[in-house]
Amino acid sequence: MSIEKLKALRIEPEFKRRRERPFRLIIIGIVGVLGSAAFLARPWEHESQRIMRTGPTSAATADEMPDAGTTANTPGTAINSADGTDSAVLTVSGYIVNAARIQISPRFLGVVEWIGVKKGDPVFKGQVLARLDDRDYKAKLVQAEGALASANVAVEKGELAYKRAHTLTTSRVATQESEDDARLQLADARASLQQAKGSRDDAQSYVDWCTIRSPIDGVVVEKLVNSDELVMPQSFGGQGGPSTAILAVANPHELQVEIDVNESDLSKISLNQKCLVSPEAYPDRLYHGHVAEIAPEANRAKGTLQIKVQIESPDRYLTPELSAKVQFIALPDVG
Description:
The protein is of the alpha+beta class and about 325 residues long. The protein folds into four domains: about 1-65; about 75-100 and about 255-330, Beta Barrel (Elongation Factor Tu (Ef-tu), domain 3), CATH 2.40.30.170; about 100-130 and about 210-250, CATH 2.40.50.100; about 135-210, Helix Hairpins (Orthogonal Bundle), CATH 1.10.287. Helix content is about 40%, strand content about 25%. The chain has six helices and 14 strands. The longest helix has about 35 residues, at about 135-170.
């Protein structure tokens, strides 16, 4: 190859420097971007201080907000806070019962004509719950009222007879004996009037007793008969006799826990002692209570004594005949 051709292929130095300059600019740009990223990623001092200041406030806010599905004033919440300070000296299981369960019975033998409630219905004092067939008693009431009207007429007639006899005796037309007879007949008529009033009131009572009313505010816990069934105050003594009650009602706000305590543990219990009650169905719920009744007689066969603990402020979670645990709180030291 000739020398002229080699010179034509050679690159001049100024062209070399011109091509190196863009490459250097690219390298410088990349370094600048990396430096900016590192600078921005470094935490600022005032930002860290701001986070440290706001941290406790956020935590307190989170603590103050209740979780969904919880109740701030539930009995369990209130009692759990006190549970740490009280110590239980005895824990016994028993059954939740109604403090007062009333079975409503008729006052006489009769046939149920109508029942207006069913099991679980709330009732109030004086509400009509059922009616007995009262046709016979209404007929007797009519007879009694007729006898009372006749007695009133007899008294009025006796008063007129006595007044007349007294006038004749004063004018010396009749003897004193006739006046005395008239006075005694008037007294007999008045006595008969009182008897007639009593008979009328008795018949009225039977008519009124045919209407069965609730004696308390509460809930119907049991329905024992149906319409057209025969009921009576007391059983004949056999299983096939008439029912002795129509309905059973109880106050759901008066609940107790009935437990049997071993005689060896009786020294740990006293009347009005504080307790904590926890139903087996809801072990996370606790209720305040106190010893309301201590049986005066023990069970010799079991070696136990029955204790009743009154539950304070029961709610819908407590159901009679369910089991519950009772924690007896330690009695305060005296002297």
